[in-house]
Amino acid sequence: MKIKFLSNLYLSDRFFLAFGGLVALFITSFFVPLLFALAKTVLLVFVALLVVDGILLFHPRVRLSIHRKLPESLSLGDDNSIYLDLVNLSGLQLRLLILDELPPQLQRRDLRILVTVAGAEKRQLSYEIRPLERGEYTYGQVLAFAMTSLGLLRRRFRFNEAASVPVYPSFIQMKRYELMAFSRTSNIQGIKRIRRLGHSYEFEQIKNYVRGDDFRSINWKATSKRNELMVNQFEDEKAQQIYSVIDKSRSMRMPFDGLSLLDHSINTSLVISNIALYKHDKAGLITFSDKLGSSIRAERKKGQLQKIVDALYREQDRKLEANYELLYHSVRNVVKGRSLLFLYTNFESLYSLQRVLPILRKINRQHLLVVVFFENSEIFDFSSKEADDLEGIYYQTIAQKFVSEKKQVVQELRKFRIQSILTRPENLSINTINKYLELKSKGLI
User: 325: domain range?
Assistant: First the structure.
């Protein structure tokens, strides 16, 4: 019992301040003897307060309860809320310092929650974490250091709340963009409204003509009957195949905003797969590097999205170069029928594109290929700044060369009629959704 008492007893900052003042008073009394009696009195009061504080803190009726509430899974790259249910089971008001043993992947040592709870009070506390790696996250104990109003001693309470929770690709981002893509005000949020330039084959209804409608879709028979312009409205074709093709090679290991390019691509692949399924299209997945990774045929059956989520959860980057010959053969074997392929990769130079361009052209002949690659936002921002000296001009020139090479890659792809998206990592999902909606509206898939 004594060992347990000592192991949970801690001295507070207020104790050391008071003790330091007491020592200073005794030292001063050595030069001013009249202060010695005062110093002894203060010492007795200090010891008495320590005893009273200890009795109050370690009384058997002083009890706490803290329960951590974790979600079933955490969302990669997003702020996830974690809740702590706190109950003060004693009648004594306590000041608490709460420490939660976070998973090592978070690399956080600054989580300190300070709270004052009255006797018999219940309270829910919360904090946010932003996981930057996929995988299993293991939590440890919850520690609470309690103090009375005297604040000289602290009593440690330990709650065995050890638990594990998986971090999946960003389902928060997936739900957010799902709402944006199908909301009537989505153009305000960043999703572009695309006016249809052609017709799909699926007739939906006849409606009144409004400005901007294609005059070629006017239904003259209905117009003559109603004595006002009526147009045929067509809906997007359904059951089209949409594949996310992800490069896992070393070029995708570069980090931006804490996430690697691979993780940015994984999050966007989940977003576009979800939207494609809501559009009644079929969603599939192919990952590759020097070896073939996941390969999921495009389907629209129940459980397809969960199948894609589980595959994306397991993906890991590799240190070797991507094998595009392997990708070509994989596409031929897996993808049956003309499909829309979003290829997430990264070309840092025109030369790196030219090495694989013949294979991309072969794939584009059989399917609608969209090459999605990344703008180096830090280099781009640096290139637009004014240089202060000769060295700055040199570095800025090099940065502008890198920016120019990215634009040349776009022009080279366009020359061979290959669709492309050059985007900042943070704008990847928005730009990919807009490209998908644009291609469907033009009836190119």
Answer: 171-195+238-441
